[in-house]
Every structure is written in C-alpha cells, then in structure tokens.
Specification:
Helix content is about 65%, strand content about 10%.
C-alpha cells in the first residue's frame, strides 16, 4: 500500500505540494481559532486567517527563493502577534517550514543569521506586541525555541545529504580507479603475451634465416632444409599471435576456434623450433610430473619459451640445458647455457623486457625467479612455481 502511494506521489508532485500546503493551512487556521478562544482579549478572526493563508501561499516559492519566503512568513507571523494571537507551534507552522527550507538549502552562515533574525522577531512580537503577559515562557521563549529547533533540524538534514553525496562521489571515484586498474592489468597481460609470441618466433625465424644465409654457399642442401622449415616457425607465430589478439575481441563477436593456451605439453615442439634455429636444447625431468593448473602451466611454458629465446639471441653457444624438477609442492625450472671459458659470454642487451616479463609472470602466481651469469660461464635462469593452491591443497 505504501509503495502505491509513493509511486503516485512521485508522478504527481504538484498535487502532493498543493495537498501538503492545504493541510498546513488547515493546521495554522485551526491554531489561530484555538488561540483566539484562550486569549484574555479576543483578537479579530479573519485578519488572522488571512495572514495564515498568505504565509502558506508564500511557501510555494520556498525552493527557489527560500530567504524571501522566510521574510514573508516572518512578517505574517509577527502580524499575528500584533493582532494579539499567542504564537504557538500550530500558528507558527509556515514560519517553521520556511526556516527549515532555508537551513536545508543555504550555507551555514546564512542559516545561523536567518535563525537568529527569526528568533529575534518572535521575541519582539511576544515581548512588545502580545497581550499574553502572564507567561513570558509562552510569549517569548517558546516561539524563539521552535524557530531555533527548526533551523537545527534543517542543518542536520543538510549535513546528512552532503555526507551521502560525498560518499557517493567517493564510491564513484573508487569504481573508476578499480576499472582503470583492471584495464591496466589486462593491457599488461596482453602485452606480455604479445611480447612472448613475437620475440620467440621471430627470433627463431631470424636465426633460421641467418643460418640459411651462412650455409647458402658452403652447403646449399643444408640451407635449403632450413628454408623449408622456416614457414613452420612463421605459421606458429601467426597462430599464437591470432590467439593473443583474440583476447581483445568483444563478447558479441562470432566465436572463433582459437587454439588453447600453450603449456608444458608443447615443450617438444618448442625444442624442435629451437633446433631448427640452430639451438640444441636438452630437457631433463626429475621427480614425478604433477598435473598443473592452466595458469601455472601457461606461466611455466612462457617463462621457458622466453628463456630459450634469450639464449638464441644473446648466448655465445648453440646449446642449452633445461631441467624440470617436480616436488610435492613446487616445480623448479632451470635453463642454463654453458659457455666455454675461452669464449666470452654475451651480455643480455639492455632495454628489453624478457627478464622483466619472466619475473612478473613468476611473482604473479606466487613463485620466485632468479637470473644471473653462471660462475663457470654462460647464463642461468631459475624459476620456482607453486603446485598447491592458497589453502595448501594440491592442485587438481
């Protein structure tokens, strides 16, 4: 029932406003009639009713001109005091509503000054103009107190509204910051995927092309075999690049059959690709291999892929060793390229994102990452990834 009344009130604001002012006028006119019966000297009825009607009618502009409406209602209520009416809350209804409207919409300073002015007007009306002299509390204190109480209540409502507005704005800013943070994280994730795909496959393709050019004169048959295998590397790059770019597609786009995210099951293909580029990779496994979650599986593959890409680009040797050590709770991957002591170790080029991406991937899943030059020469990358979830239970 209350919901229906609320809906009707929301759709008919003018009718609600007129009804409220009519009820207020009835309350004020009733207060005037009641006060007239208890006063020692009976004041004139119709002038009091007319002043009440003017005060209630002035409240129609209380939202856009609150101070002017307060002045008009104050004059009307003081006029009732001049006529000899006792200023009770029923008689002062229009003034209290006008003071509340000022307190809700105006500043604190304006509210304070208007409340003190209205209270002073009530004191003047009660002290010098009222014929009810046997009780100063009813004639002076009571009217002023009701005006100040209305101002305090309006100020409280204004503060509550300002607080609610500030909380809404703060919540909106937090949502915007969270949205920007999520967009940034997604962009970083896509950037890592694109970097890994482009850096690895294009490095292998570049190495194959350089090797083919080297053997073009001395061993044309070997060069031809390398060139024949070159499209496989570029095709793999295109496939993974399409899968990575597919992350940018909207949900409303037609669903393309994107290949699943790579994992450690594709390590043999990764080794074959490195071999085609002239890098011989040896993979050894220690411990019992455990099933990996898709996130851990993809992270391990990407780190291994990036480490071998760095060996292909920067190492002075054409061999690399990969060790996968499984324990009950961790997977430790080690990629090492040993450089003979009589050959200088090529330092990784500055300005790249390979080591940064590998470290970021490892720490994102709760693992550790370490990369440094090997004491016996070469470069060594060690990464430890957890095989258990946050609550300590084994991964499925």
């Amino acid at each position: 029932m209350s919901t229906n009344w609320q809906r009707r009130a929301a759709t008919r604001p003018r009718a609600v406003e007129a009804t409220a002012l009519a009820l207020l006028f009835a309350l004020t006119a009733g207060g005037v009639a009641f006060t007239r019966t208890v006063m020692p000297v009976t004041p004139a009825l119709w002038p009091g009713v007319a002043l009440s009607a003017v005060a209630c009618a002035a409240l129609l502009r209380r939202r856009d001109r609150p101070l002017q409406v307060l002045t008009a209602t104050l004059m009307c209520i003081m006029g009732l005091g001049v006529l000899g009416y006792l200023l009770t809350p029923g008689v002062m209804g229009p003034l209290l509503v006008a003071q509340y409207a000022v307190s809700v919409r105006a500043s604190r300073r304006t509210t304070r000054n208007s409340a003190l002015t209205a209270a002073a007007g009530m004191i003047v009306a009660g002290l010098f103009l009222s014929s009810f002299y046997d009780s100063l509390i009813l004639a002076i204190v009571n009217p002023a107190a009701w005006v100040l109480l209305s101002a305090v209540f309006g100020s409280y409502v204004r503060v509550r509204r300002e607080y609610a507005l500030a909380r809404a704005e703060h919540a909106a800013r937090e949502r915007e910051e969270e949205a920007r943070h999520r967009v940034f994280q997604e962009r970083m994730r896509i950037a890592r995927e694109l970097h890994d795909v482009v850096a690895h496959h294009l490095t292998l393709a570049d190495a194959q092309a350089s090797t083919a050019a080297h053997f073009a004169r001395t061993d044309p048959k070997k060069a031809f075999e390398i060139v024949v295998n070159l499209p496989e590397s570029t095709a793999a790059a295109l496939r993974e690049l399409k899968a990575a770019v597919g992350l940018l597609r909207q949900d409303t786009d037609p669903g393309d059959d994107l290949s699943p995210a790579p994992g450690l099951e594709q390590v043999p293909d990764l080794v074959d690709g490195c071999a085609a580029a002239g890098l011989q990779v040896t993979v050894t496994t220690q411990g019992q291999p455990s099933p990996l979650t898709p996130v851990i599986d993809l992270t391990a593959y990407r780190i291994l892929q990036e480490a071998l890409t760095n060996v292909t680009k920067h190492a002075a040797t054409r061999t690399a060793q990969v060790r996968l050590a499984y324990t009950r709770r961790f997977l430790t991957m080690t990629v090492t390229n040993d450089t003979p002591t009589d050959r200088p170790t090529a330092a990784p080029r500055s300005g790249g994102f390979g080591l940064f991406n590998m470290r970021e991937r490892a720490t994102a899943v709760g693992g550790t990452f370490h990369a440094a030059h090997h004491p016996q020469g070469g470069f060594k990358v060690t990464c430890t990834l957890p095989l258990t979830s946050d609550d300590g239970s084994p991964t499925p």
